[in-house]
Specification:
Largest interface: A-B, 23 and 31 residues
Strand content of chain A: 15-25%
Low-confidence stretches of chain A: none
CATH superfamily of one domain in chain B: P-loop containing nucleotide triphosphate hydrolases
Distance between the termini of chain A: 22 Å
Helix content of chain A: 40-55%
Mean pLDDT of chain A: 90
Mean pLDDT of chain B: 85
Number of helices of chain B: 8
Structural class of chain B: alpha/beta
Order of helices and strands of chain B: HEEEHEEHEHHHHEHEEE
Low-confidence stretches of chain B: 1-15
Order of helices and strands of chain A: HHEHEEEEHEEEHEHEHHHHH
CATH class of one domain in chain B: Alpha Beta
Helix content of chain B: 25-40%
Oligomer: heterodimer
Number of domains of chain A: 2
Shape of chain B: globular
Structural class of chain A: alpha+beta
Largest sheet of chain A: 6 strands, mixed, barrel
Shape of chain A: elongated
Strand content of chain B: 25-35%
Distance between the termini of chain B: 45 Å
Strand order of the largest sheet of chain B: 6-7-8-3-9-10
Number of strands of chain B: 10
Radius of gyration of chain A: 29 Å
């Protein structure tokens, strides 16, 4: 019956598809955005433990430690290696004179631990050349809006010269701020001087040791804060959730998607029931039970729901694919939990509206068909 | 559950209140009230009547006389306020809801004034609805429905949707739906109201041919005086009472 009425069929399909698209797309963007709170951790894949001052919260919200912290960490049992890592904000003056806020990341001079895994241009060893910095690929679009080639460009950092000699394939930060990677010793020159400069110690653990146990040992022995890679990544995500209005804003949009779905589907459902109430009455008079009628409506609603849901998810996939070249959406993916949540939302929408509409069918006396 | 399951439990073949033992329908003391705001309106005032098998019985009367209410009660889709109804010996209002639904499915066929065909399924599927509701496999039910549509001379329209059929063809599909499960009682509501005189007579001829048999009763609610001469028996209702029961219309109507 439902599929035979083109207007209502497409109305339901649109309602479900639009609702699914809104919920899936907004949740996908939300999840990917807040995961960027952990981008600093993901961009340093070798580090199994991050050691920091106890007041530091994320890779961006940090407080520097005395350089002696590095030796203290190295002396803890279970630590295979420990390297210095500097992350600090700075202002850069480009060749055209523009001023831009950047994040300076200083990686260990000897091992280069702390660099992103992959470079898009040049080799990691190029950092050995004087005044070299690597820029993250998304940062290029911010620093060189006219599209000029960044390689070889000279920058001014804290009255020091810096030359871009490579491009890192990095996950952008939450604010998409330009990130410049350089050697730790060089970074000390680029960041305005303070007494303590060491922001993190990156740690690798010995075979057979657990990251949690070693982190606990570091904390016990040094009094510093030590978090495993997973813990510190989660801390970055939590920081975004707790300190920005993003969850509320996205939550409102997702709720609107749900409400719009309920409104469109509910209205269409009730119109369908109202227009076919005589047919339902006839079926009841003939001897079709309420249960069979409900089963009939549920199976048709399930079919429409499945098609609408699939269209909504496909729409989200096309959206993500369509914007995959855009730096804002770099690395975006759809976690399996997101389509699952939108599927649950669709089931709730259909169940709620279907139940409300079916109540009138259940209450209809078969004798109504003669009136 | 089938009718054969129900019959031993509820069948009462003894004559009650002057009811003929072979009556298709035996209605006694039927009263029906409706609420209209604060007031109660009595539509039927204690009707006693029998419907015999093998007869085409017309129930006629002005609008508001209670004829639709009466047949709704006689075919088990509207509870009487008072009174009892036995259909082929079964006191239908003593059945549970589920038993009554099954009883209708097994024993009663309906032809509605507006046909009420399901718009999204073809003629064969519409005609097969009672069989499918009884649990028959869809293909088998469609095949049986097609045979009946052939008999009703619209076999070639079996695959068409209702909106692709003329009014007369839709009515034949509705007739097929009413008869496909071989019910013992066929109830028709204004079957000729939307048809011209000749089409109306053809439908009535068809109904007499397929819906009237020695073990099957047919009740028709109508106020179409063009077809009164086709009735075996006419019940005239006025203000909720049977004022005439005979083979012809009384003088003055």
């Amino acid at each position: 019956m439902l599929t035979g009425d083109a207007q209502k069929f497409y109305g339901l399909l649109f309602g479900i598809a639009f609702s699914t698209l809104l919920i899936t797309q907004q949740l996908t963007i939300f999840v990917n955005l807040i995961e960027r709170g952990a981008s600093g951790v993901y961009n340093a894949p070798e580090a199994e433990i991050w050691v920091m001052d106890p007041v530091s919260r994320t890779t961006e919200v940090n407080y520097a430690m005395p350089s002696t912290a590095l030796d203290e960490v190295r002396s803890v049992k279970g630590v295979e290696w420990a390297v210095p890592h500097l992350r600090a904000p700075a202002s850069v003056r480009s060749s055209t004179g523009d001023l831009e806020g950047v994040q300076i990341v200083g990686v260990d001079d000897a091992t280069l631990i702390g660099l992103p895994e992959r470079l898009l241009e040049a080799n990691k060893s190029i950092l050995s050349q004087p005044d070299t910095v690597l820029i993250d690929d998304v940062g290029i679009t911010n620093l060189f809006e006219s599209g000029e080639d960044p390689i070889g460009q000279r920058l001014e950092l804290n009255d020091q010269r810096a030359i871009i000699r490579g491009v890192a394939d990095a996950i952008p930060s939450f604010t998409s701020q330009v990130t410049l990677y350089t050697k730790y010793s060089q970074a000390l020159n680029y960041v305005p001087g303070t007494r303590n400069r060491l922001t993190f110690v990156l740690v690798g653990i010995k075979d057979g040791e657990s990251a949690e146990a070693v982190a606990q040992a570091i904390e016990d022995q040094t009094g510093l804060k030590a978090e495993t890679r997973a813990e510190f990544a989660q801390a970055g995500v939590n920081f975004i959730i707790e300190n920005t209005g993003i969850p509320l804003n996205f939550g409102i949009t997702v709720a609107l998607g749900f409400i719009v779905g309920v409104a469109i589907v509910g209205l269409t459902f009730s119109l369908f029931i109202r227009d076919n109430i005589k047919q339902f009455g006839a079926l009841k008079a003939i001897g079709v039970t309420n249960r069979k009628i409900a089963g009939m409506v549920v199976s048709q609603a399930a079919m429409v729901g499945s098609i609408g849901y699939a269209l909504g998810v496909i729409g989200t996939v096309l959206f993500i694919l369509g914007f995959s070249e855009n730096p804002t959406f770099k690395g975006f993916y759809i976690p399996w939990q997101v389509p699952f949540v939108s599927m649950v939302a669709v089931i709730v929408i259909l169940s709620l509206t279907g139940w409300l509409s079916l109540r009138s069918v259940m209450r209809t006396e078969p004798a109504a068909v003669f009136r | 559950m089938t009718m054969s399951d129900l019959q031993p439990q509820h069948m009462d073949t003894t004559a009650i209140g002057g009811c003929a033992p072979d009556a298709a329908i035996c209605a006694r003391g039927i009263v029906r009230d409706f609420q209209a705001g604060q007031s109660t309106i009595r539509v039927l005032h204690g009707i006693d009547t029998d419907i015999k098998p093998g007869e085409m019985t017309f129930v006629v009367g002005e609008s508001g006389s209670g004829k639709t209410t009466l047949i709704s009660i006689m075919c088990g889709i509207l509870w009487p306020t008072e009174g009892e109804v036995k259909v082929f010996g079964t006191d239908i209002y003593k059945l549970s809801d589920t038993q009554l639904v099954n009883f209708r499915l097994e024993n009663i066929g309906f032809i509605f004034q507006q046909y009420n065909l399901i718009p999204s399924i073809d003629a064969a599927a519409n005609a097969a609805v009672p069989l499918i509701a009884k649990g028959m496999a869809v293909e088998e039910a469609r095949e049986k429905a097609k045979q009946l549509l052939e008999k009703l001379n619209i076999g070639d329209q079996a695959e068409k949707l209702p909106n692709q059929l003329s009014g007369g063809q839709q009515q034949r599909v509705a007739i097929a739906r009413a008869l496909v499960h071989e019910p013992r009682l066929v109830v028709c509501d204004e079957p000729t109201a939307a048809l011209d005189a000749s089409s109306g007579r053809r439908v009535m001829d068809l109904l007499r041919e397929v819906a009237v048999a020695h073990d099957r009763a047919c009740i028709i609610v109508t106020h179409d005086n063009r077809i009164f001469d086709l009735a075996d028996r006419i019940l005239v209702l006025e203000d909720g009472l049977v004022t005439h029961d005979g083979s012809d219309m009384p003088d003055g109507h």
